[in-house]
Amino acid sequence: MDVDEAWAMDAMLSGNNFSYICQGICEWVDEQHAPLRVAGFVQNWVNEGLICKIQIEPALSLSK
Question: What residues make up the domain containing 16?
């Protein structure tokens, strides 16, 4: 596992969301490619059986 993937895995296991992980991964890749890089990690983790559940949180409402 490359250092950026290891960092992303640790961030995920610490409960951080996709956006946070994409921002952090910019230490290794440019901002434009970060989401695709992280999505590739997630795809590999699912295929390898490292992820068995994904929790989707409801979006924040902007209306009051």
Answer: 3-47
